[in-house]
Amino acid sequence: QVQLVESGGGLVQPGGSLRLSCVASGGIFSRSAVGWYRQALGMQRELVASMHRGGIDYIDSVKGRFTISRDNAKNTVYLQMNGLKPEDTAVYFCTLDPWDDYGNPRYWGQGTQVTVAS
């Protein structure tokens, strides 16, 4: 059983930065696809960034501002978010899938709230 625990969310002003972290326990972290989804109030959940065997992907709205990375020695995946905008406000979820199915991940974290407001 894999457990994912996110941290690093909070309130930030437009243009600010946050770094989300997600620590995984159990499972085979180094060979798993990892990703970050987000869900804004009243909106559909969307895949923001993913790191998988085929490479790294971002949705267009965060390209050049967000960076996903991982530290396999620490079983941790990060999402560095710069140039934050109010439309980035959402609950952010860390995900992991041992079979590289990053579009339909098996494991989810509990979510961390990111609020961008002045």
Quick description:
It contains no helices and 11 strands. It has about 120 residues and is mainly β. The strands form 2 sheets. Strands 2, 4, 5, 6, 9, 10 and 11 form a 7-stranded mixed β-sheet that branches. Strands 1-3-8-7 form a 4-stranded antiparallel β-sheet, with no helix packed on it.
What does this structure look like?
- With 118 residues, this protein is mainly β.
- The protein has no helices and eleven strands.
- The chain has strands spanning 3-7, 10-12, 18-25, 33-39, 46-52, 55-58, 66-71, 76-81, 90-97, 107-108, 112-116.
- Strands 2, 4, 5, 6, 9, 10 and 11 form a seven-stranded mixed β-sheet that branches. A four-stranded antiparallel β-sheet has the order 1-3-8-7, with no helix packed on it.
- The protein is globular.
